[in-house]
Amino acid sequence: MKFSTLPVLAAFLALPLLGAHAAAPEGAATATATATATATAAATATPASGPWTNSIGMQFVRIPAGEFLMGSEESVEALAQAFPMLERRRFENLQDEAPVHRVRISQAFLMGAHEVSVGQFRRFVQASGYVPESIRDGTGGYGYRRDYDPSTTQRGDAFEGRKPQYSWLNPGFAQTD
Q1: pTM for this structure?
Q2: In sequence order, which ranges of the chain are alpha helices (DSSP H)?
Q3: Where would I find the H helices in 19-117?
Q4: Cα separation of the two ends of the chain
Q5: How does pLDDT run across 46-75, given as a tens digit for each residue?
Q6: Of 73, 78, 12, nearest to 42 (Cα)?
Q7: Cα separations (Å) of 34 from 7, 20, 31, 151, 154?
């Protein structure tokens, strides 16, 4: 899931308490705008302290507006020295983490205090009309295959690379809602 999807998903999951509806006959764009506006209103109305629970028992926390530093100044050499069990090329692939830069969050928002279950994400997809990128563009997602050998791949990851047969609906292993 791309980062830009997270506020929409969080907004949708907050809706049962607010009595709003994410699905709209005008389509997913309207649903997204409705969900985002609702989340912004909820974040503004939610007390600054303590978790907030929606009608299906999901806890949310209010993230206030503010600034923080994002990124890393650690060199490839420093990372390789700190983690000698990993191949140097893994650190070379982290160059997009630099430079350290200031990020400004201009509006408070609500974020789920816990991970989203498959069932919760399924309801979000059904109600909003959202189509995840892995399905929309046909490239698929990353998946697990029991006989997959990471040592035979360029990346050496534990999960097989993007393939059309994988998505949130089929990550390559059984999952429940």
Answers
A1: 0.53
A2: 5-18, 28-45, 76-82, 88-92, 118-128, 133-136
A3: 28-45, 76-82, 88-92
A4: 18
A5: 556 678 887 767 899 999 999 999 998 899
A6: 12
A7: 12, 8, 5, 46, 42
Taking residues 25-35, what's their average pLDDT?
43
Q: How many CB atoms lie within 10 A of CB 84?
A: 7
State the pLDDT confidence band at 86, using cuts at 50, 70 and 90.
confident
More confident residue, 177 or 20: 177
Helices (H), strands (E): how many in the chain?
Answer: 6, 7
Residue 64: the pLDDT is: 93
CB-based contacts of 10: which residues, under 8 Å, 6+ apart?
39, 60, 109, 110, 111, 112
Q: CA 61 to CA 109: how far, in whole Å?
A: 8
Could you tell me if 43 and 50 are in contact, meaning their C-beta atoms sit under 8 angstroms apart? no
The backbone region for 170, taken as left when phi is positive above 0, alpha when psi lies in -120 to 50, beta otherwise, is beta
